[in-house]
Task: inverse folding
């Protein structure tokens, strides 16, 4: 709890700083711990419900644990017609988990996302925000190997 | 063959974007210097005269918008750059920010001087942390050089909410709230960020400002379509040979964009449809391809220019399959504040899924059309008002794709 307070407190005097503090928490932990929501509510002097409401509004924030590497697959129309579904199948098969799940070793989480703005190279995935384009099921293994 | 006209992208590949001296040597910050030598009202008149209209989707005259803030007395005013580009198939703002970030900062500083603001925010989407880093470097360099004077710029990062591209939702997000749109009026130029007069312009709009000042309003007004002058950055995706970006005058036709610049449909297949302006744009059939891309010409055929995304589909594509994906997108991205959008996007997706799986009837198509028409009128913000457009335009132009699913 002390750690969370320290991170969140840095943004206390930034107008509208709660979202910036959530970004900072995610940079540190890769997700927003439940207790950090309490800390944010106290520090920004708002009801806990509101602090929670802000955190859960945005799809890039996740309250509660997830994997070390978050793999996001774009499901917007340009990626869809470029074969995103085959990439999803390859990722699920390789990691042995379904979309929305985290591997047992806590290394990978699979999430759907909307457009990540790398549409010159559809279909696209990102791993902790780093984009990989022109994906094929064959390329999936090579890319995952970088993170294992 | 038509040619590209690189105004926004004039420095693309020619300067080191992270070296401010390169930008200054390429006439950078001359526009701001010129602006500061003018009176605020003359400056706003000059921008009005250029005819520059917002490049974010609404197409409002930029100078007129600035005038509203200038005319609203307040101790503090704000300039906000909307860098939350989230329209699927769009990456033009990223291109500008990565390749010429100083042009955006300069445009914002000009606006700051015009309306009487010393504080700017760039709201950059959460998907682009690597762009945020570049923007911060560019801001540090501009501050160190002193070119911005007393105008301060801060970058704020979004967190994956499409609705935050709507200006009042974006403002809510900067204030640290859920990104839900506000009731309007009052509009942001009068009552915006923390209740103060605020200009929210798109990245591409701001990037146009320095060169307008450098070369003059008349020069700019003479490029492209009269009612929507200048160039437009377009990003080509889908079934098109050159999946790339282009910058073209606004009187270029859709056909030129796809076939001259895009190289046409690959694999010997025939063209079927194009969706322009992002996922909320209308679908356009072959018969309307000779329309110019400018805002008003597109509006006249029930389509939009929007973000300038160009998503091409060949004859092998099933329109209902694509629409299923698009309606899924809107169900996910609806913020839930107003019920026509919250319920409408959900039911629309449900009906399309139903039709796709062969369980639809002709009555469903009538219901889809009725729901879409209601949403266009009743939704609180642009998201919900535009969400039915792909459904309505495909019902109009590609109805057989739907009816062929019926059992």
Result:
């Amino acid at each position: 709890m002390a750690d969370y307070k320290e991170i969140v407190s840095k943004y206390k005097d930034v107008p509208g700083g709660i979202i910036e503090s959530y970004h900072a928490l995610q940079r540190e932990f890769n997700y927003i711990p439940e207790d950090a929501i309490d800390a944010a509510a106290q520090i920004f002097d708002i009801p806990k419900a509101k602090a929670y409401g802000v955190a859960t509004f945005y799809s890039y924030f996740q309250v509660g644990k997830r994997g070390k590497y978050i793999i996001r697959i774009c499901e917007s129309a340009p990626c869809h017609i470029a074969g995103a579904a085959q990439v999803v199948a390859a990722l699920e098969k390789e990691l042995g988990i379904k979309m929305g799940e985290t591997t047992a070793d806590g290394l990978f989480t699979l999430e759907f996302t909307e457009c990540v703005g790398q549409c010159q190279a559809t279909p696209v995935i990102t791993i902790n925000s780093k984009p990989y384009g022109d994906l094929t099921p064959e390329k999936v293994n090579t890319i995952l190997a970088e993170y294992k | 063959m038509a040619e590209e006209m690189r105004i926004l992208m004039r420095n693309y590949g020619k300067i080191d974007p992270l070296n401010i001296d390169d930008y200054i040597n390429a006439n950078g910050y001359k526009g701001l210097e010129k602006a500061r030598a003018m009176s605020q009202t003359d400056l706003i008149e000059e921008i009005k005269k250029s005819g520059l209209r917002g490049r974010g989707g609404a197409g409002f005259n930029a100078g007129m918008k600035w005038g509203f803030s200038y005319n609203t007395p307040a101790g503090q005013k704000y300039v906000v750059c909307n860098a939350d580009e989230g329209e699927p198939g769009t990456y033009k703002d990223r291109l500008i920010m990565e390749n010429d970030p100083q042009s955006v900062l300069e445009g914002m500083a000009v606006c700051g001087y015009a309306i009487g603001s010393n504080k700017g925010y760039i709201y950059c989407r959460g998907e682009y942390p690597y762009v945020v880093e570049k923007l911060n470097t560019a801001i540090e360099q501009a501050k160190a050089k002193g070119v911005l004077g007393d105008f301060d710029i801060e970058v704020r990062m979004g967190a994956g909410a499409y609705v935050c591209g709507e200006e009042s939702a974006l403002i809510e997000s900067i204030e640290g709230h859920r990104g839900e749109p506000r009731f309007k009026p009052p509009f942001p130029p009068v009552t915006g960020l923390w209740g103060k007069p605020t200009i929210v312009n798109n990245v591409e709009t701001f990037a146009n400002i320095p060169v307008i000042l450098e070369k003059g309003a008349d020069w700019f007004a003479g490029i492209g379509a009269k009612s929507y002058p200048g160039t437009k950055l377009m990003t080509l995706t889908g079934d098109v040979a050159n999946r790339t970006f282009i910058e073209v005058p606004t009187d270029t036709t859709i056909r030129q964009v796809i076939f001259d610049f895009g190289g046409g449909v690959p694999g010997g297949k025939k063209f079927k449809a194009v969706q322009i302006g992002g996922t909320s744009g209308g679908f356009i059939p072959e018969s309307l391809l000779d329309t110019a891309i400018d805002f008003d010409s597109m509006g006249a055929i029930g389509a939009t220019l929007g973000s300038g995304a160009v998503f091409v589909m060949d004859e092998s594509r099933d329109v209902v399959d694509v629409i299923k994906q698009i309606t899924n997108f809107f169900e996910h991205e609806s913020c839930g504040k107003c019920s026509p959008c919250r319920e409408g996007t959900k039911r629309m997706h449900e009906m399309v899924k139903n039709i796709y799986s062969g369980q639809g009837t002709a009555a469903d198509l009538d219901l889809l059309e009725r729901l879409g028409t209601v949403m266009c009128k009743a939704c609180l913000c642009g998201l919900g008002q535009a969400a039915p457009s792909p459904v309505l335009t495909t019902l109009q132009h590609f109805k057989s794709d739907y009816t062929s699913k019926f059992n």
Summary: Chain A has a mean pLDDT of 95. The longest helix of chain A spans residues 18-29.
